[in-house]
Amino acid sequence: MKIVHGNLYVHRTNIDELLVSDRNIVDQARALLPEMYEWNMLKVAKDKDKISFMYYPNFYENPHPALYQYANVELATGKIRYGSESKNPVILHRKETFVSKSDLNYKKFEALTDQEVEAGLYQKNLLSHIGRKNFWDALLIDKGLKIEDHVLLKI
User: Fold this and answer.
1) Which phi and psi angles does 70 have, rounded to 5°?
2) Residue-range definition of the domain harbouring residue 106
3) For the whole model, what pTM was predicted?
């Protein structure tokens, strides 16, 4: 689980790690979604009034998967707002924080994060920008780096 600006993020495989109260509101929100809605990441708003169900295709294969679609469920009203990203999507970093330590990919995700930290890719002045694909891709090129199979390499 990862907390960003007070919001809780977790991969679908790690929902059992949530507090019972959080699992209950996730279940409540999930019941409002169409049965076949595809998602693999959750965001529980810090005030617990909104749950976002997000889909990042190829979460396990892509080192920094891009957001494809989301559904924001407002618990008080039951209102759902759907959306998608395409031109400059949000991407994920520090994937090990979203999954359980028992996940078979945890160490691989953690090793990539360690390499990225060591390469200076998570400097404070970059943190508000690296969450978007275009900036991240340009940063890697600028630093002469690329990522293959969750390994950071010099070009």
Assistant:
1) -150, 160
2) 100-154
3) 0.93
